[in-house]
Design goal:
Blueprint: E1 6-8, H1 14-18, H2 23-28, E2 40-42, E3 75-78, E4 85-88, H3 97-110, E5 112-115, H4 119-122, H5 126-134, E6 154-159, E7 184-191, E8 199-203, H6 204-209, H7 213-219, E9 223-227, H8 229-233, E10 246-250, E11 252-254, E12 261-263, E13 270-273, H9 278-294, E14 299-302, E15 309-313, E16 317-321, E17 332-337, E18 345-346
Parallel strand pairs: 4-5
Antiparallel strand pairs: 1-2, 3-4, 5-15, 6-17, 7-15, 7-17, 8-14, 8-16, 9-10, 9-13, 11-12, 11-18
InterPro entries: AtsK-like, TauD-like_sf, TauD/TfdA-like
Domain TauD/TfdA-like: 77-337
Protein name: Alpha-ketoglutarate-dependent sulfonate dioxygenase
Amino acid sequence: MSATLTTTIMEPVSSLLSGTATKKEEATEEPYKYAHLMPVYSQDKYPPLEPFEHVDPGSRALSHANPRSFLDGGNVVELTPEFGSDVRGVNLATLTPDQKDQLALEVARRGVIVFRDQEDFIDRGAGFYQDWGRHFGRLHMHPTSGHPEGFPYIHLIYKDANSKYNDQGLTSIISPSSCNPPGLTTFFLLAQPKTGGDTLYSSQVLNFRSLSPVMQNFLRTLKAMHTGVDSLRATKGGARRREPIETVHPVVRRHPVTGVEALYVNKQFTRSIVGMKKEESDLLLNFLYDHIAKAGDHQARIKWEPMSMALWDNRVTAHTATVDFGHLKSRRHGARITPQAERPIPANASMKMDD
């Protein structure tokens, strides 16, 4: 990276740095174990996003005699019959490249998997996180968020007792968008409230599959415009290290490894259906957003425990945080590793996705 000014935000210890804490507080408060992973907001400028070719690691596991052997010895609980799993007894930090390929395939098939007791992984630090993510694809650098000092590919979320919480809008299910949107995504919490802050996941495969055949066929013919302009505008003066882009994606995409079809619209980034009048586009998109939000039988809720890690396939799974813990004044500090995947493949093989 270029030698530029970096601002470090360390809100939970702001009272100590300002000298307002009492000596008693200084003596009793334990050092924060993950202070070295606090967010910084660099002023570096990132190059524009450009399309690239991606080979999904899960495709290499298709030829395995037992592509779930990486789970041998673990305890697997299915969160719902077709979506989501909860795993104990598997150390992600020690997986071989071959086992990581198996992992990618299993996450693609289950949508989201939470792995418990991952202190070995979490304590290996940001350099290890980045090396882990690169196995699954080219890493994405978030254009506005904080990251650990010197590790711009690690996206951090951070709130504590001094943070301002946005309670002006309803929680929504989101998935990021770009020319090469994310594939297998890894997220874990370094600190969390005793309760609250769960993450809700929704299967875009089941959301699509539950629609009528007439609606499915219609949606396969459509493209939608996605943009990050509004998302960056909402940063309210924060770091803005890359200019946003607008990208056209199919409304229904096909997974390159499993072949399943999935809805690919989200309220945060999808703006319009290509070729429709605004009133028509808004009517259809609002129907789909409502369908996704209310389809409780297509959702899985992850309740966070210390040292848990969630991995999901962002091509077929939408997610949202539940911001129900602001009044608790607790620290919630998380890290996300976001490899990019292929440009979305239309479920309709005859659809032309010209730039």
